[in-house]
Amino acid sequence: MLDEQHIKTLQSLAQRGNYSLCAKDLGVSQSAISQTIKKIESVMGVPVVFKTGKKVMLTKEALQVTQIGQEYLQKLDQTLNAFQQEHKQMRGALNIGTLSGLGKSWVAPQVIAFCSQYQEMNLQLKMDFPEELLEQFKNGDLDVLIMPESYVPATAHKRLLGDEVITLVYPDHAHYEDLDAQSEKCLLEKPYLFFQDNDPLVYNWFRNIFGATPRGIQPRLIINSFSHLLEAVSEGLGIAVMPTHVLKRYQQDKKVKTFGENSYVRTQSLYYLTHSDLAENLKVSTLYQALMKNPL
Questions:
Q1: Do 113 and 130 have their domain in common?
Q2: SS3 label, residue 116
Q3: What is the C-alpha to C-alpha distance for residues 107 and 290, in angstroms, rounded to an integer?
Q4: Residues 254, 276: one domain?
Q5: Are 136 and 125 in contact (CB under 8 A)?
Q6: CB-side exposure of 106: number of CA atoms within 13 Å?
Q7: In a 10 Å sphere around its CB, with 0-12 CB exposed, 13-18 middle and 19+ buried, how is residue 86 labelled?
Q8: How far apart are alpha carbons 1 and 39 in whole angstroms?
Q9: Tell me, what's the pLDDT at 294?
Q10: Can you give the residue range of the structural domain that contains 209?
Q11: Which of 223, 288, 246 is CA-nearest to residue 106?
Q12: Does residue 83 surpass a pLDDT of 70?
């Protein structure tokens, strides 16, 4: 196998036509150049030099190998330079904002993995109410927002992350064995657990599945933490509606069931938002790519 030193020797010899000058160029002895030429000929299996008077010339085979080797070394240098530039750009701070429920169940684990991969970056993940996040984004305190489409500012540069999907979740208990996914009346006879007052996820799910908004649902418990809401369902306290990405993260070891993909309802799309001047920023783009590898 020929290496970089072999190619550089052929390149210098082609330019100088002289062992002595070639050795001077490469900072080695003339005998070292002779040994390198012998090694190259051994690898290639053909002569690589011949003399014309006092000048040393490369054979056509050696010239071809030299050209290919030069192109390879040039591309290698370009690639290494690109890696070095990328490494320099993947440093420093990146401030990210998202809603609390989405942040805890999906964004935070992705940010932690991203931080582990790029250890010279300083990441901050802010989880808050939408109004607070939008104000911080407007003031430039946040570089990235991950938000539902209803909160997308008109001035932001946006990239689609995917659609949030919700589903009805019920306890894996004997009291709920008679649940019928096709019967609104049957479902409404059970107690409900809400994420917030007048939980829009619950009403949205019923509206999409049955074509009408149910009336008079009095939640047994309201708790704005999806992980604790799922725990309450697991304890048999009632039924809840929540995003499927919450189930992916927290369902393990929980005694809960769903009606499967037939009960999935697509809600609004989620977007990755940045300021226009950061749209091509490498840190911003790389984080987006990382999130897209682990979709909702």
A1: yes
A2: helix
A3: 11
A4: no
A5: no
A6: 26
A7: exposed
A8: 10
A9: 86
A10: 164-268
A11: 246
A12: no
Which residue, 42, 62, 88, sits at the end of a domain?
88
- Between CA 168 and CA 198 the distance in angstroms is 16
Return d(Cα 203, Cα 191) in angstroms, integer: 14
Torsion angle, CA of 75/76/78/84, rounded to 10 degrees?
A: 160
Number of domains in the chain: 3
How many Cβ atoms are within 10 Å of 166's Cβ, its own excluded?
23
How, if at all, do strands 92-99 and 144-148 pair?
A: parallel
Gyration radius from the chain CA atoms: 32
What CATH number should be reported for the domain holding residue 61? 1.10.10.10
Q: What is the CATH number of the domain that holds 97?
A: 3.40.190.10
| Cα–Cα distance list, 16 to 20, 36, 70, 186, 207 (Å) | 9, 16, 16, 91, 82
Tens-place pLDDT, residues 181-209: 999 999 999 999 999 999 999 999 999 99
Q: Write down the residue that tokens 């996040």 correspond to.
A: 133
- ∠ CA(141), CA(226), CA(113), 5° rounding? 55
pLDDT band, residue 111 (cuts 50/70/90): very high
SS3 239: strand
> Which single residue is written with the structure tokens 């000048």?
55
Cα distance between residue 43 and residue 59, in whole Å: 15
Q: Please tell me the predicted confidence (pLDDT) of residue 84.
A: 65
- Among 205, 230, 202, CA closest to 105: 230
How many residues are there in the chain? 296
Of 79, 68, 77, nearest in space to 11 by CA: 68
pLDDT digits (tens, 9 = 90+) for 24-45: 989 999 999 889 999 998 989 9
Residue 1 CA, chain-centre distance (Å), reads 38
The verdict on 259 and 214 lying in the same domain is yes
